[in-house]
Design goal:
single chain; 3-stranded antiparallel beta sheet; 10 strands; rod-shaped
């Protein structure tokens, strides 16, 4: 023992150590007893799981939209959207790339669009979704934003069935009908909407449908550029043929009109001949056209000589 440390000094040091241990113990205690909270927006719901330091994680209850609740220390809350989800398939900046499919006549086409749906936020359905899918993909929201995990989940549970639905429906129609006929395109779109829910919910392999209220908007499907060029050339050829046909028809009608005029004129002439006789008509025709039908004859002079 150092001779410089007095008994009073040793007592003071022990007191400081004790106070330090109490502070550390207090901080550790706060880590275990600090309550947790969640605040849901008007378009959010949450799942509450008990997860204290001395208990196993288990589901507790659901939190409705626009609620703020406080729960036990260590508990966890997982927030999910209750508003409409849009899955856009268009380009590299959207949720997914354009979808390709093959038509009835074997032409590969590409289509862009958006699928709309709702997550089933019934408490039991949402709990089952979280336990089976949401937790695995970390699909719950981060703050007020839909997470990368949510988008990864959509690429598996929405994009793949959507691809299948579009491909199956596209096999019922030819590429020219889909590309040029808006009524056929609308029916194809309706076929996709009708097939999509079953294909989506079949993947979850359960009795509860995790997604509902499907709608879809598809843009005009596009064939390969070579096909488009050929189609344009074909349309131009048809247009030229129709123009030539119209010109020929116009000429035919003009010719028929001219023949009718000539027939009418011939009938008029015949009527005049019937009235005046042939010589009388010729004399009258000459007079009408500034000619003298009564030219002197030289035959009599010659005979007199």
């Amino acid at each position: 023992m150092s001779p410089d440390v007095t008994p009073a000094g040793r007592g003071k040091a022990a007191t400081l150590v004790g106070l330090g241990l109490l502070v550390v113990a207090g901080l550790v205690t706060l880590l275990f007893i600090r309550p947790t909270s969640v605040s849901t927006g008007p378009d959010q719901v949450a799942l509450h799981y008990k997860d204290g330091a001395f208990s196993s994680r288990k589901f507790a209850d659901c939190v409705s939209p626009s609620q703020r609740v406080w729960d036990g220390p260590g508990d966890r809350h997982f927030v999910y959207p209750s508003s409409q989800t849009n899955f856009v398939f268009a380009n590299a900046d959207s949720d997914g790339a354009p979808i390709t499919f093959v038509t009835k006549d074997g032409i590969e086409m590409t289509v862009e669009g958006v699928a709309n749906l709702l997550l089933n936020t019934d408490c039991e359905a949402l709990r089952a979704f979280h336990d089976l899918i949401g937790n695995r993909y970390a699909a719950y929201m981060v703050g007020d934003q839909r997470s990368d995990g949510w988008r990864r989940m959509l690429s598996v549970y929405i994009q793949r069935p959507l691809d299948t639905a579009i491909d199956r429906a596209g096999q019922k129609y030819t590429y020219t009908d889909l590309y040029t006929d808006p009524n056929v395109k609308a029916q194809w779109e309706a076929d996709v909407v009708a097939a999509l829910p079953d294909l989506v919910n079949r993947q979850t392999d359960g009795e509860v449908n995790f997604f509902e209220n499907f709608a879809i908007t598809l843009q005009k499907p596009e064939p390969p550029q070579a096909i488009k060029d050929a189609l344009i050339a074909q349309q131009e050829a048809v247009a030229r043929a129709k123009a030539a046909e119209a010109e020929a028809a116009a000429k035919q009608k003009a010719a028929e009109a001219q023949i009718a005029v000539e027939k009418a004129e011939a009938a008029k002439i015949q009527e005049r001949i019937n009235v005046l006789g042939r010589e009388g008509y010729l004399h009258q025709y000459a007079i009408d056209n500034g000619l003298n039908p009564y030219q002197p004859s030289t035959s009599g002079i010659i005979q007199n000589r």
